[in-house]
Design brief:
The structure is a single chain. The chain is an all-alpha fold and 141 residues long. It has helices at residues 6-46, 55-140.
Length: 141
Amino acid sequence: MNTKFDSLLKIKKQELDKCEADMIYNNHLIALKNKEIDILLQDLNQINVPKNGDYWDFKNTQEVKKAFVEEIDKQRNEISRLKDIGKQLQKSHRIAFIEYEKIKYLQDIETKKMISKIKKNESKNLDEVGIMLFKSNKENV
């Protein structure tokens, strides 16, 4: 049955689905950043400090390590930012879900009213048919 809330319910459902998709995408980005950090940590652990040689070899190795650490920190900051965005997305999802449930509840009430009205009309029509049949049987007897 079509109610006046159908189009609004459809819009709210689309908003809810978009919030869910945004949350999934954000979690995917966080997972990618964590994988990048794992790769960077593996690469960092594979760097060997020279045991002998000149000062510049040691300095270059330290600079490479420092670059890896800075990149790891950058990725962790990015993950922190994405988690903050995730919290905002969860709030938006919660609000969208509440709005969707409100409209769905109103639609259910409207549908129940329509069904009740249809049943009442149907009962009334059946009573009229019964009366007409009773009168026609009475006249035939």
